[in-house]
Amino acid sequence: MAAVVTRKFGEEALQFLGKKVSVETSDQKIYNATLAGINERLDVVLDNVEGHGILKMIINGAFIKEIRLMEKPFDFKALAERLSRVFPGLVKIREDVGAIIVMDKIKVTQFGIEEGSGLAADRVRSIYDEFMKETKR
């Protein structure tokens, strides 16, 4: 059971990667930046630290009190619902891999189409692009 809990925690923590976070240290310093890296000890690499003139920094996980996600997570469910209107019964959300699978061959992540080609993939891409524009990501 502990391995499952640890794996789930790791998967959740990885969802913060590439996103704006607020990191509070044990000495009450707060750093707002993009999370560029994280390991099992919660050591973090931050990019573009706001208000400190720091381009990149590493903070030892032993000194981190809290890490907060500052941006809204990607809404896979809303995108899947939109894709289902065009591809009814052919859209599956795969939370374990952070993707939507369309027609068992087109893989869509929060970053776009990662697998698939042809007319169906082009249609998925246009739906994705429209979704991203409307949700201002």
Walk me through this protein's architecture.
The protein is built from three helices and nine strands, in the order H-E-E-E-E-E-H-E-E-E-E-H. The chain is an alpha+beta fold. The protein has two domains: 2-69, SH3 type barrels (Roll); 76-134, TATA-Binding Protein (2-Layer Sandwich). A five-stranded antiparallel sheet has the order 4-3-2-1-5, with no helix packed on it. The protein has a four-stranded antiparallel sheet with strand order 6-7-8-9, with helices on one face. It is elongated and about 55 Å long. The model has no long low-confidence stretch (mean pLDDT 89).
Keywords:
2 domains, SH3 type barrels, elongated, 4-stranded antiparallel sheet, alpha+beta, 137 residues, TATA-Binding Protein
Topology:
Layout lengths: L1 H13 L5 E6 L4 E9 L5 E6 L4 E6 L4 E6 L6 H11 L4 E4 L4 E4 L3 E4 L2 E4 L3 H16 L3
The biggest sheet amounts to: 5 strands, antiparallel
- Gyration radius (Cα, Å) is 18 Å
CATH class of the largest domain: Mainly Beta
N-to-C CA distance? 37 Å
Q: How are the strands of the biggest sheet laid out side by side?
A: 4-3-2-1-5
User: How much helix is in the residues?
Assistant: 25-40%
Identify the overall geometry: elongated
Q: What pattern of helices and strands is seen along the backbone?
A: HEEEEEHEEEEH
Could you report the average pLDDT, rounded to the nearest whole number? 89
Return residue spans where pLDDT drops below 50 for at least 5 consecutive residues: none
Looking at the structure, the CATH topology of the largest domain is SH3 type barrels
Number of strands: 9
SS-derived structural category: alpha+beta
- The oligomeric status of these chains comes to single chain
Beta-strand percentage range: 35-45%
Integer tally of domains: 2
- Secondary structure tally, helices: 3
| CATH-defined architecture of the largest domain | Roll
